[in-house]
Amino acid sequence: MRQTNLTLSELISIIDGKMDTYYPICLILNEIGEIYISKSGEDTSAAENTLVSILSSANVFNQQIALSYLLLKEPREENKQAIKDYISKNLNVAGMVRQVLNVKKIEPWFIF
After folding, report:
1. Which of 27, 33, 61, 90 is the least buried, fewest Cβ under 10 Å from its Cβ?
2. How confident is residue 42, by pLDDT bands cut at 50, 70 and 90?
């Protein structure tokens, strides 16, 4: 469920450091993730690309949030390999995400 009225382009601007906000980054990532998994017709490809780019960020907690959302819905073909590569190189982070999904009884599109 969305918690802000920010548009996807505003959320991406915050992630890219082009716009200031008082919202914590974890909330911004959750907002982007909610847009990605939504069926509302918003541009989910831009949300997906942003989440994939977060996988290469320095912050492991941000990576966990991004990966959690990316595993909930099968991504476009061009991003699948990047997600699989991230999982194979970061098994500890992926394992934590997988454990959370298991507890919530959510089956990811990619089994690892």
Report:
1. 61
2. low
